[in-house]
Write a structure and sequence with these properties.
Layout: H1 21-24, H2 30-58, H3 64-98, H4 136-150
Helix pairs in contact: 2-3
Length: about 160
């Protein structure tokens, strides 16, 4: 019986798609092997600590009942994060392959649909006098800085003005 086209994922049968050996090779890089090993070590360790707390709780330590629940929750969280990262890696590269970015020409202006991160612009909210006159405090501070620059060995307390 052929698969139902409404719920069939043809992307899993394309070369390098999720579920194929080419797609799974991305999860066998040295970085991913370290992640797999870390996940197994953490889950086994957290479940072992949970069992240890169960035995302590059975011997009469009532505080250990909370820890007996907490450690398996930690193990579940590690599995959740690992699974989410695996799915993200497998789905992210498939989306990147299916829609390659169009090449940008040298003189083309960005289109209205181009999304990007823009740097914030600092706006001076203090009005600057139109005649170019400076604020009195600012002028005094600039004179002080000029004096400090002219007298490198002087202390700020030596300033005459």
């Amino acid at each position: 019986m052929p698969p139902n086209p409404t719920d069939y994922d043809a992307a899993s049968e394309t070369a390098g798609g999720p579920g194929t050996l080419d797609g799974m090779k991305r999860l066998w890089t040295p970085g991913w092997i370290a992640r797999h090993v870390a996940m197994v070590v953490l889950v086994v360790g957290f479940l072992g600590l949970g069992w240890w707390q169960v035995t302590r709780a059975a011997s009469g330590n009532t505080l250990s009942f909370g820890y007996a629940i907490e450690w398996p929750v930690f193990a579940g969280f590690v599995i959740f994060v690992w699974w989410r990262e695996v799915r993200h890696t497998l789905r992210g590269t498939r989306g990147d392959r299916s829609s390659p970015a169009p090449p940008a020409s040298a003189g083309s202006a960005p289109t209205a649909t181009t999304l990007g991160v823009r740097r914030p612009v600092r706006v001076n909210r203090v009005p600057v006098p139109a005649d170019g006159a400076q604020d009195g405090d600012l002028a005094a501070y600039n004179r002080y800085l000029t004096w400090l620059n002219a007298n490198p060995g002087a202390k700020p307390g030596d300033y005459p003005g």
